[in-house]
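Researcher: Last one for today. Full complex below.
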Amino acid sequence: MNVVTLCLGILALGDASGYEIKKRFDGPLRRIQEPSFGSIYPALNRLTREGLVTCTVQAQDKRPDKKVYSITAEGRAHLKAELQKSLPGPDKVHSDFLVTMLFQEMLSPAFVAAAVDERIAFYRDLMTTLDCPAGQQSAAKDFVCGYGVAVCRAAIDYLEAYRRDLPAPEPAADPAAGQKERGVLVNPQAMEI
Amino acid sequence: MNVVTLCLGILALGDASGYEIKKRFDGPLRRIQEPSFGSIYPALNRLTREGLVTCTVQAQDKRPDKKVYSITAEGRAHLKAELQKSLPGPDKVHSDFLVTMLFQEMLSPAFVAAAVDERIAFYRDLMTTLDCPAGQQSAAKDFVCGYGVAVCRAAIDYLEAYRRDLPAPEPAADPAAGQKERGVLVNPQAMEI
DNA sequence: TCTCGCATGTAACGTGTTACATGATTCC
DNA sequence: GGAATCATGTAACACGTTACATGCGAGA
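Model: Here's the assembly. Have a good evening.
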């Protein structure tokens, strides 16, 4: 799934500017895909060239001009065809966490424990983000969010069970576990290489 | 996590040739990462240049020569440092399935049902692949496989519950659901665009 | 003042895939 | 006879990210 198709899909759900498309992927959707401006703007220009979307410049008060894109009938047809071309291929997970855990035998137990703690905290946080929109959203978004919640819960349960079996509870590593995203507040050098 | 670090990690688990490294990612690990020859061979050459691995050419009977790589002490130290540099960042899911489902409102119900069926079959198959190695493997691999199984099970449960609520059971779409990976046996054009 | 948010865009760069090139052996 | 497996490697290509360029307004 490339950025061009993704932008076309977002525009099928409603008009938006490049900046707004980017913002949509700052929410829970960022877990699935997180395109940058450097790929979104060229994608929108290409879609416009191909007649799949139209662009209207909107002057704004005390804000820069905005280029609002709308999907055309051809764009809608193209998206349908693109999505139904074949059944979606298998997901790619691309997990640095799992790779790290695969090599955990050569890492310090404190680091492994901190990584697991951080991951539990991360998924707990993600689950609350995903869980709030119940019913009021579109059925499609509910499905995708629900899928995320189900997978999160399973991951948390599994990680918590594993955490209990871990040798050292290591209270010194806990500050790292509370961090959002990928903070580097805890110096890994400090915890026994 | 780039291919270079990944190769170094595999070599930390035991000597291997480029071809053998590739084969390791044909198994269940392929869900996490699936590097190609075009990235593995240059990676091994770079690791050799940097002194992180050594290479010995092994002549074989009735088979082409094999270049077996071994990790050096510096390589091991480098890998440790690389993995413990910072806590692993959040996973990237990259799911064409979820994107497709996000736009399901504009797709034919038959296609959506077929996609869900295929995904259930896929995860069932994956779970059996992941589930078999219990205990005999390394603890690290057990953890990673167990994680995969837990997530698979949650996904299957969620998808099956969703499938039951789906309007049309559509028996014509079932052949697609039985396919492995991403077969194109069923012509999507045939099922009402 | 200085940073942040809004808003668009380009160019360089990194990284990985696909396709090609080569060649013996084994299985159907 | 043809495909598949073993085995390594390179070059072209696709795709996306990062950094840079620009500029105004609002709030700390």
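The first helix of chain A runs from residue 3 to 12. Chain A has two domains: 3-84, 96-188.
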